[in-house]
Amino acid sequence: VSHELRTPLASIRANAEALLDNPPNDPDLQRRFLNTIVQQTERLARMTDDLLVLAQAEARPIPQVQQVRLREVVWSLREQLRPQAEAAQVTVCVEVPEDLVVCAQRDQLEQILWNLMDNAIKYNRPGGRVCVRAHKIPEGSQIVVEDTGIGIPHEHLERIFERFYRVDKARSRAKGGTGLGLSIVKHLVEAHGGRVWVESEWGTGSRFGVVLPDSRGGQDCQ
């Protein structure tokens, strides 16, 4: 964690010191320094938020679950992510039955799906597609987020849910990633008594699946 925090802090300090010690007369150069400071500050803020979510998931292992209409949640997230998807020229489709109800803590369910959908858009190609599908299985509810993006090399799949693990560190940082999103997904899904999986090949897109049981820790959905 300390290394991940030191990197943006070092960048902020270097750019701030450059402005203080030898202020450039060129307004474009000044703006470049300031933009870097703002970007790294935003990155630190995102990382802090993600670390807090992760700590809360670990501290409260059994969430208070309830019945949640999945289609409502997915459609809401689709609308929130619409500007990002349009900027990336990515289409987001939703194939979730209107009456499908999952057993989950709603805020945590939103966090799980936000991270998966955000990644699927972020690491896609112009003209690409992201599709969210769900159905009932004997274990409970299965949700799949599938994309036509760059995919993940097979040798990275076993570690993809580890904290701060990145397949392409430079690309991840350039996209604004903190390296914590998939780790948060895994912790939150497992706190619900569920499981998460991934199928992918480099260059052919990815499928992330989440299975949530219909009850958790003796709690039935209300």
- CATH fold type of the largest domain: Heat Shock Protein 90
CATH class of the largest domain: Alpha Beta
Name the poorly predicted regions. none
Average pLDDT, all residues: 85
Overall, the morphology is globular
Spatially, the strands of the biggest sheet line up as: 2-4-5-7-6
In total, the number of strands is: 9
- Share of helix, binned: 40-55%
The total number of structural domains is: 2
Termini Cα gap: 38 Å
Helix tally?
7
Oligomeric state: single chain
Radius of gyration: 19 Å
Strand content: 15-25%
Q: H/E series, N to C?
A: HHEHHEEHEEHHEEEE
Q: If classified by CATH, what would the architecture of the largest domain be?
A: 2-Layer Sandwich
Write out the CATH superfamily name of the largest domain.
Histidine kinase-like ATPase, C-terminal domain
Alpha-beta content class: alpha+beta
